[in-house]
Amino acid sequence: MEKTLKQGTGFFNPRRFLLLLRRDFSNGYRSVLIAMAAVSGFIILISALSSLQGGNGKFHTVIFAQLLFIGGYIVSSLAFKELHQPGRSYFYCTLPGSLVEKFSSKLLVTSLGYALGTLIFYTIVGAVSEGINRLIFGHGHYFFNPLDMNILLIIAVYLVTQSVFLTGSVYFRKLAFLKTTLIVNGAAIVFGLVIALTFYLIFRDYIHPGGLEPGIETILNRLGHTGQIEAELGSFVSAFFSLIKILFWYVLAPVCWLISYFRLSETEV
Fold it and tell me: How far from 105 is each of 18, 119, 243, CA to CA, in Å?
């Protein structure tokens, strides 16, 4: 017998939400602890090996970003895994809680929860690794600064982009991470082709088998360069990138959340 995702009584109940949040945070904690131990050892090892070649100011920033994005995307793509498992989906769907509470809990755990957890974890492991480096080699990398503006920007980008993989977790029953990655890469390729086609249509008279000739400045001169065309092109490029920034920072995540929420509301198991 088919059963729709249970809405629960009431739109939002703080106590019910906290219970769901505790469940989602503690789910699979043994595996998380094992993964943290393995990652800690790996970070300490590669930090030590890299220190043999001298300090690197970007070492910890790069490793932290990889851990945040790759790990976070995988966690996000597995957020609603039990919803697609016949043996566990009925239990999850009948948990006390509204749809808003269930979705908000998963969103908070995979976005802000994972980001803050990773930040605290890496701050500790990074400090330990650098302590070991200085104890053994007498030098090391720069210490990881969790309040550095570059780190905060990386976290902000993650909080936006992970929404795409959370949506993939709702839609795909299996291999959600791989399928979402393929879709994102496909969309990027299509976007790049559209940009390339637009460029070609504008400058096709100046493109030869050997490439773009004789250069953008000469092209502008041939078009009657008086400064006006350059200004118009500059304004167009500036407006284009401004639009991209607005869509990325203010539109992408909310749209993905809405799609995920309504898809979740239609889910039947």
Answer: 8, 20, 31
